[in-house]
Amino acid sequence: MLAAQDWLAQQATSRPGAIALIEAGRTWNYAQLNEATAALCGRLAQHGVAPGHRVAALLPNCAEYVLLIHALARLGAVLVPLNVRLTSQELRWQLGQAHCDWLLCNKDTESQAAALQGNWHVLAFEQLNSPIENPFSWRECALDLSLVQGIVYTSGTTGRPKGAMLTHANHLWSALGSAFRLGVLPHDRWLLCLPLYHVGGLSIVLRSCLYGTAVVLEPRFDPDAVDEALRHQRATLFSLVSTMLHRLLDLWEQRGVPPTLRCALLGGSGAPQALLERARALGVPLAATYGLTEAASQVATMPPHGFRKKIGSAGKPLLWTSLEIVDDQGNPLPAGEIGEIVVDGPTVMSGYDGQPEATACALRNGKLFTGDVGYLDDDHDLWVVNRRTDLIVTGGENVYPAEVEAILLEHPLVAQVCVVGVPDEEWGQRVAAVVVPKTGAPLSAKALDAFCEGKLAGYKRPRSFHFVEALPTTNSDKVDRRTLIERFPS
Amino acid sequence: MLAAQDWLAQQATSRPGAIALIEAGRTWNYAQLNEATAALCGRLAQHGVAPGHRVAALLPNCAEYVLLIHALARLGAVLVPLNVRLTSQELRWQLGQAHCDWLLCNKDTESQAAALQGNWHVLAFEQLNSPIENPFSWRECALDLSLVQGIVYTSGTTGRPKGAMLTHANHLWSALGSAFRLGVLPHDRWLLCLPLYHVGGLSIVLRSCLYGTAVVLEPRFDPDAVDEALRHQRATLFSLVSTMLHRLLDLWEQRGVPPTLRCALLGGSGAPQALLERARALGVPLAATYGLTEAASQVATMPPHGFRKKIGSAGKPLLWTSLEIVDDQGNPLPAGEIGEIVVDGPTVMSGYDGQPEATACALRNGKLFTGDVGYLDDDHDLWVVNRRTDLIVTGGENVYPAEVEAILLEHPLVAQVCVVGVPDEEWGQRVAAVVVPKTGAPLSAKALDAFCEGKLAGYKRPRSFHFVEALPTTNSDKVDRRTLIERFPS
């Protein structure tokens, strides 16, 4: 009964003249975005893209990416957004794991795509220019909320990424919960400079379409360009990670906070307290959020008026979502006690694609066991103590040590390795590797760095290598990551 | 999965300190409203109110009414809001028709309730003061969205009111659709001076709770009091009917529009063009809406920025709702052609309680045939030409001629009668009766008016009686209401 039309088609009827997308000096209203999406649907279908197909997108932020997101939803195909910063080896693994039928690229990623051979057809946006036989047939399509909209890969604790399957319903409830926490106004404009292949970026596109409001799309985060766009496009909302905040504060301390901005949604990782204090002093309307791919982005969000009073907390769960803090046995803990964050609600993914064991581990009785650690205070506000014990967040990208360690262990002269995140004022954390070489092996940082090239995306590669004779261990003989971090770099 | 808690319990966790309700100088935040509701649940349960019970409310606007709405939802009981302006005869009929188990009143309506004997227990709010055995057990309850929240009576075309069954899901989607059309902000305050027994008032309570925003409740519409409350309580939203607008404009032309008001939602009936022009000239942020009880209030709404450009249109359907204009055979008509308004979407009622024939007539393939007449223009904006051909809207209250005619026909000296709405600057329309007396009968307006007393609510009673020898008829020998109205009063 909610499936009369997809969201874009509804907005094209409901707010045809309202601005939907602004990118690189181009502007689409909802009627135009709908037409362009219908045309793209027609072209994709003519090439053979069909309902149920899995379509990987290897694209930087661009208007075509936004069209693709809407077109695949309309076609009933599944989006598999790929991180353009990954190596060919990493990309090939994800494409195979997701059984992709198609790989969409554009001129910027063509050569990257060409290097990826497999059971998928490669299609460049520039090829999609044939006349459309029947564009109108794609204008109004029923949207089945229970269908998977996208499979979004997250770094895996076990060394391999996992593809979180997010349904249209997941995104719908996420958008509604966000609307009631942050407010929504017909003239809102959300500046999007996060990558569209991350859930934080993707969710802005879907959410804004549901609201009938505008997205101001930037190709990437560039402090001057973003600051200029915030002002010139009169953006009211903006999603960012702490690395971006750090750089923007340098500008805003000179120029002031962009005047139309009513909410800057800060996600990604626990930002340094000093940075938050700086933002508060400057009057930045920060909303701090805790979210993860497996819950379609925001789980808990502290809105700006709360942020000013309780700096550092991620606030309360969005409407319809509930939070529990549990101990190692899964028993709920009282307020103030630290444990694992467990999420329940309609934004929780339907599972990891093709990884039943990982799904069973993360989803128990429909609840998402995040692996992240935190506590609820007496007001039921969430404080995230640290992300999954071993997760490194660097410049908004998640890096799982296990993945980096697995690569380094392939080196013939490495006996043991532990990869950790080291605090970094600008990047939040940077990746560092503590290596135990095989006895007597002449191992250099340079050699290891060269070894990682082509195997690990740049942001995952250790910024520093530290050679030790042994790693500290816990009672159960596991590497004692915490002790290592505390001792680091000594 | 959306049923973790009812909306009030969620807000009590999520925004405990946010203001939920302001009434007669008293203020409740969400934590307090939740506690008070839990206490009322306990007391109602101790008296025997149980899940599935039907609980009629014969109450003026008051904070207790708001608590009752939330408490019945939490208990899984069904609210049957009664219009306090009805006569005992009319009320008794509705109580019986709805098979009510309980009749809730307060000191203001006690004597009215006492006069109503039947198979229901009468309970006054003032009796609900016993100590509660276990208030906490009522604090968090699962909410099944498919349950009927309320049975709201609408005047019937066939002479008897019909009870529209509205589910929690109907209200949920209505609230969401309204949010995206009008915007919602955490600090919003909705002034409510419409009766809570009408869907227009009831929906404000449910919607605001879902948003976590505040309701400023007024006992009734008094222009000075409402204007004062709008200003003093810094109301941002306000629902009204054209009679109210008429009176408020007189004030606002002196004092200016209350400065915090961002949207005045005008429903009820097609307001005179001159009135709308006056409001526009003054800069009133009017949103014109077309709604009806059977669709949980708003169906289509023109937001303030559109109203200024296209005065008189009810705009586009809310998100998830769709509109069709059909001919007498139910075939869709193109833009510009006038026909019956048909509504499809998740806000459409599940049916009329205990009236399968009326339900089958109104709901066909899940679509609501409203009986109202209008057209869609080339922009897909709705223009309501007139409400159900024979519906009279006077001061925001719906009056069905059939109901009034049925009473007048009971008079021994009345041969034929036709009740019509006559344009009235202040009330929109007033009720007039055109009567054919039995041959030679000495019938006076005074006698007929006295005859109506006690049988019809005051607002339904004809303001004037006109005696004629015969009524104009159509080709099919029905009374030609349209011709009669055109000729009126000559």
Q: How far is it from the N-terminal to the C-terminal residue of chain A, by CA? A: 62 Å
Give the CATH level 1 class of the largest domain in chain A: Alpha Beta
Output the structural class of chain A: alpha/beta
CATH structural architecture of the largest domain in chain A: 3-Layer(aba) Sandwich
Shape of chain A: globular
Quick one: which chains have the greatest interface? A-B, 37 and 37 residues
Helix content of chain A: 25-40%
How would you describe the oligomerization state of the chains in this entry? homodimer
Mean pLDDT across the residues of chain A is 90
How many domains of chain A? The number is 2
Give the low-confidence spans of chain A. none
Description:
Chain A is of the alpha/beta class and 490 residues long. The first copy, chain A, folds into two domains: 7-385, Rossmann fold (3-Layer(aba) Sandwich), CATH 3.40.50.12780; 392-487, GMP Synthetase, Chain A, domain 3 (2-Layer Sandwich), CATH 3.30.300.30. Chain A is 31% helix and 27% strand. Chain A contains 15 helices and 26 strands. Chain A has a nine-stranded mixed β-sheet, with helices on both faces. In chain A, helix 6 (168-182) packs across helix 7 and helix 9 (242-255) runs parallel beside helix 10. The radius of gyration of chain A is 22 Å and the shape is globular. The mean pLDDT of chain A is 90. The interface between A and B is large, with 37 and 37 residues.
